[in-house]
Design a protein that fits this description.
There is one protein chain. This protein is mostly helical and 222 residues long. The chain has a single domain (3-213), classed as Rhopdopsin 7-helix transmembrane proteins (Up-down Bundle). Helix content is 76%, strand content 0%. The longest helix has 33 residues, at 120-152.
């Protein structure tokens, strides 16, 4: 995995955490916590995966790091799916608290993994296609939908353009993670698109998090 890709993900992780922690009470804060968690776990998966393939380790350490990398990727995909649902349905009123949603999904995957029903490679592939790809697409649609919603109310600001950039970054991520990674496209092309998607997510985190300055009392799918 490219060092640039890891660096961009790490930067986005730090910035999203800082902005989210210091945000006032807002329903957007919970939404962006899901995105921050997805980026953090993706960065963790990439870092540990990079170490496993570049450092000469004993077999048991390699297996441990490889499994941690896989599980981190699974958690990242689940949180990304959670973010996609949250931002797409951010105006829906509900009394259901979906903060436990990622935990329940992860627990289910762990049970399948421990029981031997699904192996490590299949676990990563399944979560990538079922949650990573769908979560990125839902997030992309949610960002574009929220952009037009804000545009209709005559709202202005960099946050609107941040939404479009984040949506484009998520769409690129969905393409590289869900489609191109399973096709005959050269690895160099996929690496470049990965860097572009991470770059767009990192840059958009500067402005899109300004949405957290809004105060609302509604409860969404968060």
């Amino acid at each position: 995995m490219s060092i640039i890709y890891i660096a961009l993900l790490s930067f986005a992780s730090i910035f999203l955490v800082v902005k989210t922690r210091t945000a006032p009470t807002s329903h957007y804060r919970n939404i962006f916590w899901a995105l921050a968690s997805a980026v953090i776990m993706k960065a963790s998966a990439c870092i540990t995966g990079y170490q496993a393939f570049t450092i000469n380790l004993p077999i048991y350490q390699y297996a441990l790091i490889d499994n941690f990398s896989t599980l981190s990727a699974v958690v990242s995909n689940i949180f990304l799916f959670h973010f996609g649902i949250s931002i797409l349905t951010q105006k829906v009123r509900t009394i259901i608290d979906y903060k436990v949603f990622p935990i329940v999904l992860f627990a289910g995957y762990i049970m399948l993994y421990i029981s031997g029903v699904i192996d490590t490679a299949a676990l990563n592939s399944t979560s990538k296609l079922s949650f990573g790809y769908n979560g990125a697409i839902l997030g992309c649609v949610g960002c574009v939908n929220l952009y037009y919603e804000k545009k209709k109310t005559q709202e202005k600001g960099n946050a609107l353009y941040g939404l479009l950039l984040l949506g484009l970054g998520l769409f690129t991520y969905a393409a590289t993670e869900g489609i191109l990674s399973l096709s005959i496209f050269p690895k160099t092309t996929i690496d470049v698109l990965n860097i572009l998607s991470a770059g767009m997510i990192a840059v958009s985190s500067f402005t899109v998090t300004d949405l957290m300055k809004e105060h609302r009392g509604k409860i969404g799918f968060v």
